[in-house]
Structure formats: structure tokens, C-alpha cells
Amino acid sequence: MSEAVSFAAVLVFPVAMAFAAASDLLTMTIPNRLSLALVAAFFVAAAATGLGFGATGVHVAVGLGVLSATFAMFAFGWIGGGDAKLAAAIALWVGPDQAVPFLIYTAILGGVLASAFLGFRALPIPAFALREEWIQRLHAPGNGVPYGIALAGGALMVFPEGRWFQAVAAVLS
After folding, report:
1. Contact indicator for 144, 121 with CB cutoff of 8 Å
2. Domain spans of the chain?
3. Is the per-residue pLDDT at 7 higher than 60?
4. H helix or E strand, kind and range, residue 100
């Protein structure tokens, strides 16, 4: 495949992470089509950058492992379904080399995010925010935390260390 295809396929990942974080912040949902697009783009990027069949299989195994764990977390009501699917799609991309750092960064960011929301929800909502439905939704004590922000943040933290960033750098150099 051409370098332009490699470049475009790989750049889908950071753009999708920004979209996932923004979507979860504003709507408290992560669209299924985003996770599906990430899975499809992974296979295009893998082919475009020469990721071998065996290595692709290992990435798929990591993604399926995370999907199994996050599905259980969803079943217990600990995370949302969109979070579970996004985490699995991210794990597919980060693969075995970056999966543990991704999960650690995500856990740390998730703790910071949850603490920030507890603090935010303890304060009275500012008058200007009463006009904004998404701010009211975030402020409501019974609502969850938009964990897609932590997932996207953890993914973007490991992105420069992975093979995909190296593929982008090779095209740019």
C-alpha cells in the first residue's frame, strides 16, 4: 500500500480518541460505529504498515482479552457498554507491547477524572451552566463518569511509544 494510505490509516487512531473523549464528555455515550471503525481501521493499518499475520493475531488476542474483561465489568455495572467496546478496540491497536502501560495510564487518569467529578458535583452548578444540558448531565450526582476520556487519554499516552507512531514518523521523514 502507498505511504499515504499508511499515514491515513494510522492517523485514524488519534483522531478517533479525540472524538471518543469529546463524545463521552458531551453526551455520556461512545458510538458503536466508532469502536467498529477503529477495528476496521486497525486491519487496514496493519496491512498498510506490514504487520505480519502472527503479530496481527496477537493484537486480536489482546483485544479479545480486554473485551472479555470489560464485558464482565459492564455486566457488574462498573462501566458502560461503550467504554467496554472502546477499551477493546484500543487494546487491539496497542497490542501486547503497550497494553499494560495503556491500562495503567487509563486507571490513573480514571482516578483523577472520578475525583474531579466528585469535586465538581459537590459544588453548586454555576448559573451560566444551567443553560447547557451537557453540563447539567455531568453535574448530576446519579450519573456516571465519562470514562471514555480516561480511555482516550491512556491510549494517546502510549501512542508515541507504539509501532503506529513509528509508521507515521517514517512517512513524514
Report:
1. no
2. 3-172
3. yes
4. helix 81-122
Contacts of 169 (CB under 8 A, 6+ apart): none
**Residue 166 CB partners (closer than 8 Å, separation 6+):** none
Whether the CB-CB separation of 30 and 82 falls below 8 Å is answered with yes
The pTM for the full model equals 0.91
- 163 CA to centre of own chain: 17
Whether residue 131 is predicted with pLDDT greater than 70 in this model: the reply is yes
**Binning pLDDT at 50, 70 and 90, where does residue 66 land?**
very high
Cα(32)–Cα(155) distance, integer angstroms: 18
| Among candidate residues 28, 24, 76, 82, the one with its CA nearest the CA of residue 90 | 82
Q: Which set of grid coordinates corresponds to residue 83? A: 467504554
How many other C-beta atoms lie within 10 A of the C-beta of residue 121? 15
